[in-house]
Amino acid sequence: MKNIFNFNRLVAVLTIPIAMFLIVLAYRAPRPNVPQIVGPHVWPISILGLMIICAIFLFLQTIRKKEGPSPCAAAPVSDTDPDVDLKWYRKPEMTAVLTIAGLLVYAFLLGTFGFLICTILLVVYQTRVIQKGHWARNIITAVIFSLAVYFGMTKLLMVNLPPGLLGW
Amino acid sequence: MDSHIWSNLFMGFGIAFTLQNLWWLFVGVFLGTVVGVLPGLGSLSTMAILMPMTFGMDPISAVIMLTGIHYGSSYGGSTTSILVNIPGEGSSMMTCMDGYPMAKQGRAKAALATSAIGSFFAGTVSALLLMFLAIPISSLGMKFGPPEYFAVMLLALTMVGSLSTEAPLKGIFMVLLGLLLAVIGTEKQTGQIRFTFGVDDLMDGVNFIVVAIGMFGVTVVMDESERIWRFGFKPPRDQIKGAGLWITWSELKQSFMPYVRGTFLGFATGVLPGLGGMTATLLAYGVEKQVSKHPETFGKGAIEGVASVEASNNAANGANLVPLMTLGIPGNASTALLLGAFIMYGLKPGPLLMETNPEFFWAVVASLYIGNVMLLILNLPLVNLFAKLLDVPEALLNGLVLALCVLGVYTRESSMVELYLMILFGVFGYFAQRYKYPVAPLLLGLVLGDMLEQALLRSMSVSNGDPTIFFTRPISLVIMIAAGISLAYSFMKFYRRRPEENVG
Question: Who among B195, B398, B435 is closest to A127 (CB)?
Answer without folding.
Answer: B398
